[in-house]
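Appendix B. Raw example, untouched.
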Amino acid sequence: MIKNNLLLFLLVFFAGCGFSSPNIVIILADDLGWNDVSYHGSEIETPNIDKLISSGVELDRFYVQPTCSPTRAELMTGKSALRLGITRPISKNQRLGLGLEEKILPEYLKELNYSTYLLGKWHLGSYTPEYFPTRRGFDYFYGYLSGGIGYWDHVHGGGHDWQRNEVGLREDGYATQLIKNDTLRIINEHDFTNPIFLNINFGAPHIPNEAPEESVLKYSYIQDETRRLHAAMVHEMDNAIGEIVVALEDKNELENTIVVFASDNGGLTPDVKLNPSFLAIPKIIGICNTENRFGISLFQWVCENYSGGSSNKPLPEGKMSVSEGGIRVPAAIWWPGKLEYSKSQNFISMMDVLPTILDLINYENQLDVDGESRVNSLSDVTNPESSKYVVTNIINDKYAVIDMPYKLITSAEGDQLFNILNDQSESTNIAEENQAIVSELKNILSQWQFGENRSLPISEVLKDPDLFGGEEDRIPWVEKAFKNSETNLTPKNEGNFKWVLLFGIVIILFIFARIYNRGKNP
């Protein structure tokens, strides 16, 4: 698997110096926007993230899926989220998570005697314990199973969601700091006889916007309260990253550690153009919901969870969107003494991370993945490689196909083609004069492998929405998973008739609205 002189040098270096396989640290931010880091010119100070960028390889064209579970599935498997059937965030009541037949990154690393740790967010399935990370290659898990929690109360959708190794845990503290503290403990206690894999999935700066008062005061000059809280959350995460790097240095392991940093998708902003029919669903539910009989209050699901205070400028839109602001994110790979600073404009996606890491550590077995090793891109930052990638968001009913420098967005409104190297704001649609390129990209989409969709219908999600923080009205989620396993429960489908009726009304209203608008604008 030796691909270039960089890899050959690294292998000879380790053999000559008697070093073990390098430690691997993957740090994921949650909903971190393009303009939420100071190295992109943000007013938010991120000195520790900036240091990773300035002394590693800045991945300026790093692409992900527009929501969290699909991106995390690609990281763990090296496969396209569409092939995996993970096309939107996994709901707390969703029976199917990431397919149990899939081999994931810690399982590969266990073959090379790595000690494997997951800290923070999982969000790849937890309906029954067989989906837990500790059943899938991680020696240790500390954090939460769902898509998001209150930072202080650790509650998700009415249930407590904080545990260590499959045992519910109630402890006081701010989630970002708790994740950091446990990571520091692990680093300090590990003897590094075996290399370590740390997958640190911070919840920050995902909503709800909550942060310690001292961090909020640091950004008192930011007038918008939502943006100010968001900045404080990013600040807490950046501080944590800095302390983790120092801990590795104190153990004399820093130069024997590969660090990968990225966000799971773009930042959550009001700039996202949601499909009107999608917005109509919670709106009508709210109008009809005087007795809360549909399990959701007014616009709660959309209005309370829509603007996170992030900024993706100058990239358009954000999380949930296939536009650049939703899928192009801050990212870097850092290996002190082995990788020199460079700014790579080469295309890399999240599904390339697994094969790239395994290539760097000389994993020699055959891989069944869709991603490619990008080791060449780390040493030759000007030499473009294959860049075919498909992203989707069922919420917006759109697909985007990337084959650099072009990106095609397909939807019911028509095709949009952009040269994203020259037009990162996606302001000029060049589809009409480039029909041959449009056809080529559509052909890529038609040949892309799609797996069976494992997501719950949106009607099921809305009956018991995935809210973050708030009162507890049920048992903790880790306990619920064991109960589901014992009783072989599946998500309830009670009252489906009312949902069929409701959605029938929505569809009829939508059709009449379209007919009416066409009549007004012939």
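End of appendix B.
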